[in-house]
Amino acid sequence: MLQACLVTNTGELAQILSLQEQNLPGIISKDEMQSQGFVTLRHDLQTLQQMHVLSPSIIVKNEDDIVAYALTMLVECRLLVPDLEPMFDLLDGLRWNSQQLSTLPFYVMGQICVSKAYRSQGLVQMLYQHHKKIYQPRFDLLVTEISIHNPRSLRAHEKIGFKTIHTYRDRLDEWAVVAWDWN
């Protein structure tokens, strides 16, 4: 039975890294990237552990196996992943509903991934609904960026309720910055 829950141990973080590794560009074909989506960044165990201490990520498990994850990345994590610093710098200057984003209680979805065998089963929705259940008492807004070359992810986020608030290009890719308002 599939169950959404918080990460609770290092073994689960290691499973996240394994699933991440299976969905990186260069590991999967360009056709698969286009049709099934992909993750852009490779994390390490130490980084995930530091993120976890600040705020645990959400996973979907089938028995003891992690089949999907959505990484929680508080603004305080910005220095843990140097490749994301341009995004955090950009977020500092963006506005949401005429307010400076940096003055609002928000956090960033660090990365979301569903195992190939479990796609098209509503797990993205399950992950995000669990994020909302756990983190809505602390935050008003969930923000992330999505490669514009990842149409599957863009559509999935749109279905959840994310709205594009900005687009930009950095040294890695071209991005749509999206936000999901919980108010």
Walkthrough of the structure:
This protein has 183 residues and is of the alpha+beta class. It has a single domain (2-181), classed as 3-Layer(aba) Sandwich (Aminopeptidase), CATH 3.40.630. Helix content is 33%, strand content 30%. The protein is built from 6 helices and 9 strands, in the order βαααββαβββαβαββ. It has helices spanning 10-21, 30-36, 45-54, 85-93, 123-135, 151-160; strands at 2-6, 58-62, 65-73, 95-96, 99-100, 106-114, 141-147, 163-169, 174-181. Strands 1-2-3-6-7-9-8 form a 7-stranded mixed beta sheet. The mean pLDDT is 92.
List keywords for this structure.
single chain, 183 residues, alpha+beta, two-stranded antiparallel sheet, 6 helices, 33% helix
Q: Report strand %.
A: 25-35%
The average pLDDT value, as a whole number, equals 92
Q: How many extended strands?
A: 9
Strand order of the largest sheet: 1-2-3-6-7-9-8
Estimated helix fraction:
25-40%
For this structure, what is the CATH class?
Alpha Beta
If you consult CATH, what is the topology? Aminopeptidase
CATH architecture: 3-Layer(aba) Sandwich
